[in-house]
Write a structure and sequence with these properties.
This protein is mainly α. The protein has 10 helices and no strands. The termini are far apart.
Length: 185
C-alpha cells in the first residue's frame, strides 16, 4: 500500500507521513531496506556478469564501478547529502512550513525508496542498452522528484523547478567532492 501511494502521489504521501498521518504507512526506513534488498537481488539476478567485465569494456572509472557495485550505499549517501539543502531551500514553503531536519531525513528516505522502486520498474530499459534508456530513466526520476516536491511543498511550477535544480546541484557537488576524497587520482 505504501509503495503504491509513493508512486501514485509521492508528495502528498510524504506530507501525510511527516504531518503524523501514519496509520496506513509502512515504516519508511524498513521499506527502504526491503526495497533495497529486492533491488539488489533482482539486479544481480538479471545482470550477474556486469561486474565481471574489465573496466575498459564498462567505460567506467573506479568510482563508477564502486557506485554500480554498491548502488544502495550510493543512494543512501546521496539521500543524506540531500537532507540539508532540501531543508534550507524548501524551509519556508507554502505547505509544510518550517519542516525540521529529522522530517527532512524521512523525506529523503521516502524519495530514495521511490527512486529504487522506479529503478526496479525500469529494469527492462537496461536490456535495451541505448543512450536513450538512461536518458528516459533520468527524466522519469527528475519528473517524480518535481511532482513530489511540488505536492509536498506547495510551490508553483517555476518555484519548484528552480529549487529542485538548486538542491540537485548541491547534492551532485557534494557527492563529487566525496568521490574526489575517496578516490584520489
Amino acid at each position: 500500500m505504501s509503495v503504491w501511494q509513493l508512486l501514485y502521489r509521492p508528495g502528498y504521501f510524504i506530507g501525510d507521513y511527516i504531518s503524523g498521518k501514519r496509520q496506513l504507512s509502512f515504516p519508511p526506513v524498513k521499506m527502504l531496506f526491503i526495497i533495497t534488498l529486492i533491488y539488489t537481488n533482482v539486479f544481480f539476478w538479471f545482470f550477474p556478469d556486469v561486474l565481471n567485465l574489465p573496466l575498459e569494456e564498462q567505460g567506467a572509472a573506479g568510482y563508477k564501478l564502486w557506485i554500480r557495485e554498491h548502488y544502495s550505499w550510493a543512494m543512501l549517501v546521496m539521500s543524506v547529502l540531500a537532507i540539508l539543502p532540501t531543508w534550507v531551500i524548501f524551509r519556508y514553503s507554502p505547505r509544510n512550513t518550517r519542516h525540521t531536519i529529522p522530517e527532512g531525513f524521512f523525506i529523503q528516505v521516502l524519495f530514495q525508496t521511490l527512486t529504487i522502486v522506479l529503478s526496479l520498474l525500469t529494469i527492462p530499459l537496461d536490456f535495451i542498452q541505448s543512450k536513450y534508456s538512461t536518458f528516459a530513466y533520468d527524466l522519469l526520476i527528475m519528473t517524480y522528484y518535481f511532482v513530489g516536491y511540488k505536492q509536498l511543498f506547495g510551490y508553483g511550477i517555476w518555484g519548484t523547478l528552480w529549487r529542485q535544480v538548486l538542491v540537485f546541484i548541491c547534492v551532485i557537488f557534494s557527492f563529487m567532492l566525496l568521490i574526489l576524497i575517496a578516490f584520489p587520482s
